[in-house]
């Protein structure tokens, strides 16, 4: 009985020594620091993997959206007559502007990029269709909105002879708009009797900011505006 009782403390003492040895290993400064470093590296690896996963998902989403054409929503100028709302610009002009802007917007591979928006705004501002620089903004990943103050055509000036005969679209100040028609191609009021060519080297490089330098046209337009 005495031997059995004596054996028990030795066993317990050995267990405590082993436990103490085990604890003392991690209590040593160098080993403890190494343990913290290992835990830290494991945490960083986990976070790094998560970040890589987010980057991969974002890259895939951008590629998927880039494969789809972006929709360009243009606020066209309209006129209300009675209960009817009509477009100020004809279908051909709207199609030409729409096509050009869509080509610029969809040329950029990044669906969230801003470079194409700036390029579209610059082209529209220099096109001659706007009184001021228009606003081009991205509504979401698939849609772009364009708003602004449009220059409105009020008449055409018929000028030229034979194969050079053209109908030039003008605004209320007799400034050229960026659309020239073959004579008779477009219906609508027009002025005749111009004795001077339009401002600029029309129709190739017309000046959209300078009125047509012809006093007879000024008088004709004033009369036309009274009749409309």
What does this structure look like?
The structure is a single chain. With 228 residues, this protein is an alpha+beta fold. Among the domains are: 71-147, no CATH class; 155-227, no CATH class. Helix content is 46%, strand content 19%. It contains five helices and eleven strands, in the order H-H-E-E-E-H-H-E-E-E-E-E-E-E-E-H. It has helices spanning 2-27, 29-66, 91-105, 115-127, 215-227, and strands at residues 71-74, 78-81, 84-87, 135-138, 143-147, 155-159, 166-170, 176-182, 190-191, 200-201, 205-206. Strands 8-7-6-9 form a four-stranded mixed β-sheet. Strands 1-5-4 form a three-stranded mixed β-sheet, with helices on one face. A two-stranded antiparallel sheet has the order 2-3. Helix 3 packs antiparallel against helix 4 (115-127). The chain is elongated. The termini are far apart.
Keywords:
disordered N terminus; 228 residues; three-stranded mixed β-sheet; alpha+beta; four-stranded mixed β-sheet
Task: Please specify the SSE layout and strand pairing.
Layout: H1 2-27, H2 29-66, E1 71-74, E2 78-81, E3 84-87, H3 91-105, H4 115-127, E4 135-138, E5 143-147, E6 155-159, E7 166-170, E8 176-182, E9 190-191, E10 200-201, E11 205-206, H5 215-227
Parallel strand pairs: 1-5, 6-9
Antiparallel strand pairs: 2-3, 4-5, 6-7, 7-8, 10-11
Helix pairs in contact: 3-4
Question: Outline of this structure?
Answer:
The protein is 46% helix and 19% strand. It is of the alpha+beta class and 228 residues long.
* Average pLDDT reading: 78
The count of DSSP E runs of length 2 or more, i.e. the number of strands, is: 11
What would you report as the Rg, rounded to the nearest angstrom? 38 Å
Distance between the termini: 128 Å
- Low-confidence parts lasting 5 or more residues at pLDDT below 50? 1-37
Structural class: alpha+beta
Number of H- or I-type helical stretches: 5
Mind describing the biggest β-sheet? 4 strands, mixed
Summarize the amount of helix as a percent range: 40-55%
- Strand residues, percent: 15-25%
Mass-distribution shape: elongated
